[in-house]
Design a protein that fits this description.
The longest helix is centred in the middle third of the chain and has 25 residues, at about 180-205. Helices cover about 40% and strands about 15% of the residues. The protein is globular and about 55 Å long. It has an eight-stranded parallel beta barrel with strand order 2-3-4-5-6-8-10-11, surrounded by five helices. Strand 10 (about 305-310), helix 12 (about 320-335) and strand 11 form a beta-alpha-beta unit. It has a single domain (about 1-395), classed as TIM Barrel, CATH 3.20.20. By secondary structure, it is of the alpha/beta class.
C-alpha cells in the first residue's frame, strides 16, 4: 500500500542536551559517578556523551544527509543559568551558532527548554517541588526567548513532565537519586504546569505568532484480566490526563512522545511471551499510537498534534525498519480520518546517553561505536527513513 503524506507534513529527528553534550558537570554525571546509572562507568568516552557541544556538526551533517525538515534539540538549563538569576551569554552565543548551522542547511528547529536536566543549584534548593521553581524557570525561559526566538520555529516547555517527576521525586531513580513522596511528585507537577502557563502567556504577549507546546509521554496502558484492565484505566488517567488538565488550552500544538504499550498488573509492569518487545522493554504496538492520537483529538479537536518522539531500542536494527513503517502507517490512517497530525520526530539520530539506563539501549538511526572514538555508522533504518523523508511517504 502507498502512504503519501500531506505536502506540509514534516519529518524530523530529536536529541536532548544532557544526552548528547560534552563538557557538562550536571546532576546526571554526579548520579553516574555514584554508580546509580547503568552502562556508564566502563563505557568509553562516557562523559563526552556525543560531543554535541564542541562538535555539533557531525550530528547536523547526518541530519542534513537524512533530509529531515526539523531538528528537535534542547537547551541545557545548567549552561545558560549556571547560578540562580545569572545568564551565561557565552553559552547562549554557542547555542546560537548551533541553531544558525541548522538554519544554514534549511532545517527548522524545535527547541525544548526542560528535557530531564536541571542546574545543580536548582536541584539542591528542592527543584520543581518548591514554589520558587516557577520563578526560576520564568527567568530562564524569558532569557531563552529573548536569545533564540528568531531562530526557533517551535518551542516545547517541558518534556515528559509526569514520568520525570515520578522517577525523580517519588522513586529516586533520576537525580539526585533519593526516594521521596507522592506529595513531592504532585507538587512538582503543579509547579511545572504553572511555569508552562506563565511562559505561554508571556511569550504570546511579546511574540503573538509563537508556537508553544509540550512533549507529553503517552504510552498505551493495557491489562489482561478485569483488575489489571481497571488498573490500566486508572494509570492512564493519572499519567496522561491529570497533568494536561492543569495546562488547559495553553498549547499551540500537542506533542506526544509514544514508544509502545505498557502491560499493567498489580505486581507491576509485565511482559508476555506472545508480544514483541524493544531492547528497552516496551511492547511494540502501532495500534497504541493510533488509539492515543484519537484520544487527544477527541479532547482537543482544534489543536494540531506533533509526534515529538517515537522510536525503539534496537541495537541490531531488526525491529526498527518495520517499527518506523508501521507507526507512520498508523499516523497516516489517523490523518485520513480527519485528525490533524502535522509532523513526526524520530527518536533519535545517533545512539546516546539514555538517562538511568546509560549507554545500554540503542535508539539511534546511526550506530555509535564508543570504543572507536564515537565512530558513526548509519544503520539500514537510516536509509529507510532517508527515503521516507525524500518521498514524503513510502510503500509498505
Amino acid at each position: 500500500m502507498d502512504y503519501k503524506f500531506p505536502k506540509d507534513f514534516f519529518f524530523g529527528v530529536s536529541n536532548a542536551a544532557a544526552q548528547v553534550e560534552d563538557g557538562l558537570s550536571d546532576p546526571w554525571l554526579k548520579l553516574a559517578e555514584q554508580d546509580k546509572v547503568s552502562c556508564f562507568k566502563n563505557v568509553a568516552h562516557a562523559k563526552d556523551r556525543l560531543r554535541f557541544w564542541t562538535n555539533p556538526n557531525i550530528e547536523i551533517k547526518l541530519a542534513q544527509e537524512l533530509g529531515v525538515d526539523v531538528f528537535r534539540m534542547s537547551f541545557e538549563w545548567s549552561r545558560l543559568v549556571p547560578e540562580k538569576n545569572t545568564w551565561d551569554q557565552e553559552s547562549a552565543l554557542r547555542y546560537r551558532d548551533i541553531l544558525l548551522s541548522l538554519k544554514s542547511k534549511d532545517i527548522k528547529v524545535m527547541a525544548t527548554l526542560f528535557h530531564h536536566s536541571v542546574p545543580t543549584w536548582f536541584q539542591d534548593a528542592g527543584g520543581w517541588s518548591k514554589r520558587e521553581s516557577v520563578d526560576d524557570f520564568s527567568f530562564y525561559s524569558k532569557k531563552a526567548l529573548d536569545a533564540f526566538s528568531d531562530l526557533v520555529d517551535w518551542w516545547i516547555t517541558l518534556n515528559e513532565p509526569v514520568p520525570w517527576s515520578y522517577l525523580t521525586y517519588k522513586e529516586g531513580i533520576f537525580p539526585p537519586g533519593i526516594k521521596g513522596s507522592i506529595r513531592s511528585h504532585n507538587q512538582s507537577l503543579k509547579n511545572m504546569a504553572k511555569a508552562h502557563n506563565s511562559f505561554y502567556a508571556f511569550a504570546h504577549q511579546s511574540h503573538p505568532s509563537i508556537k508553544i507546546g509540550l512533549a507529553h509521554h503517552m504510552g498505551w496502558h493495557r491489562g489482561r484480566g478485569i483488575f489489571n484492565k481497571l488498573l490500566a484505566i486508572v494509570t492512564d488517567y493519572l499519567t496522561h490526563w491529570s497533568f494536561i488538565k492543569l495546562i488547559g488550552k495553553n498549547m499551540d500544538f500537542f506533542g506526544i512522545n509514544y514508544y509502545g504499550a505498557e502491560w499493567m498488573t498489580l505486581k507491576g509492569p509485565a511482559q508476555y511471551p506472545d508480544l514483541e518487545y524493544s531492547d528497552a522493554g516496551r511492547a511494540v504496538s502501532p495500534l497504541g499510537l493510533e488509539v492515543q492520537l484519537k484520544r487527544i483529538h477527541k479532547r482537543y479537536p482544534d489543536t494540531p498534534i506533533i509526534i515529538s518522539e517515537n522510536g525503539v531500542g534496537d541495537d541490531e536494527d531488526w525491529v526498527r525498519p518495520a517499527y518506523i513503517h508501521e507507526h507512520l502507517a498508523a499516523i497516516y490512517k489517523c490523518i485520513n480520518q480527519g485528525i490533524q497530525v502535522i509532523g513526526y520526530i524520530h527518536w533519535t539520530l545517533s545512539d546516546n546517553f539514555e538517562w538511568s539506563d546509560g549507554y545500554g539501549p540503542k535508539f539511534g538511526l546511526v550506530k555509535v561505536e564508543r570504543e572507536k572514538n564515537l565512530k558513526r555508522t548509519p544503520r539500514e533504518s537510516f536509509e529507510i527513513y532517508k527515503e521516507i523523508c525524500k518521498q514524503k511517504g513510502f510503500t509498505f
